[in-house]
Each structure stands twice: as C-alpha cells, then as structure tokens.
C-alpha cells in the first residue's frame, strides 16, 4: 500500500511538540517549505519535513516503508508541467509525447503540484510562474534548495515578461525561461537542450 507523501501542520506540531501557531510561523518565515490547498490549508511534503528536522537538529520523523513510483522505462525522462490552462497542458503533452522519450504528469493547482513533485520526482518541471494559487518563485527556490529535488531542471513560463520579472526567475534558480505564447517546436527545442546540456540551460536570447 502506498504511504502518504504529505502531512498536515497538525502532524508537524505533534511530532515537534510545539503549538500549531509555531508551525505556521515556521512556514511564514520560510523555514519549513509548505504549499497551500485550494481550501487554504497548508500541507508539507514529508521529504521536505525530514530535511527541516535535520537542518535544525530535531528528532527524525519516522515513517513506514514507502512505495516509490517505478523508475522510467527505456530511459524516459519524467516531466511535470504546472499550468492553469488545461488546453495548453493537453497540447504540450500530445506534442512532446510523439517522440516517445518522455513520461508526463500535469497539475493546474498548488495541491496537485506538491503531490506530483513528491511522488513523481520529475527530471524537469515546466512551471508557469504566474499560475493562480501558487508562487512560482517560492516553488523554484524550494525545488533548487531541497537536497531531494535540487537536481530537477526548471523551465519557467510566463505571459507577463515585465510583471513576471524574467531576471527574477533566473535568480531563484530556473534553468531556462519562455515567454507565452510560445511555439510547441520552440518548447521541444528547449526541453531537448536542457536534457542534453543542462550546464548550458538558460543561455537563450530570452533570458534577461
């Protein structure tokens, strides 16, 4: 049976023997990474909680054995795309699937995104930084600073280059960026480049 991959603030408070308000303060201060459900409740990815405990010298969180997703077959790379536009999600998945090189998951909100990042362990995250209900900058920083996800490539997208602050996108760790609307062929080129030469990611002309 698959074990849960996220816990509540109540679970955290019980394990650390602190108040619920203390846990909320940790989250507000950026010490404990968390995401917010559509209902406004915080959830914490277990692996991030374990890293938090280790960083602050607190007792380890004990959890039963988990069942991780099967490794990619035939060397396929795992891609998670987060965007509120379900039509765009479908178009991208259909287009990139033609090569047979990738496995996909999609999310249109913060809750699903957090679940997929923890369970799928994607090789590449295609992230719309302005998706309602989530902060793309915070997500990118968390991905790039967590020991469990820091190797994940991040391709940022935004349809507001000025308001989206493309320079800030790279400052928080994104490997490459695309301004919407973009051609599917251009996205495919960027994805291929990231997987073939990660060290050169983000060097495109659209980078600020």
Write the layout of secondary structure elements.
Elements: E1 6-8, H1 9-16, H2 20-28, E2 35-36, E3 42-45, H3 46-55, E4 77-82, H4 86-97, E5 102-107, H5 110-120, E6 124-128, H6 136-145, E7 153-158, H7 166-171, E8 176-179, H8 184-196
Parallel strand pairs: 4-5, 4-6, 6-7, 7-8
Antiparallel strand pairs: 1-3, 2-3
Helix pairs in contact: 1-2
Written description of the protein model:
- The protein folds into two domains: 6-55, Multidrug-efflux Transporter Regulator, Chain: A, Domain 2, CATH 1.10.1660.10; 73-200, Response regulator (Rossmann fold, 3-Layer(aba) Sandwich), CATH 3.40.50.2300.
- The model is unreliable at 65-73 and 200-208 (pLDDT under 50).
- It is elongated.
- It has helices at residues 9-16, 20-28, 46-55, 86-97, 110-120, 136-145, 166-171, 184-196; strands spanning 6-8, 35-36, 42-45, 77-82, 102-107, 124-128, 153-158, 176-179.
- Strands 5-4-6-7-8 form a five-stranded parallel beta sheet, with helices on both faces. The chain has a three-stranded antiparallel beta sheet with strand order 1-3-2.
- The chain is α/β, with parallel strands linked by helices.
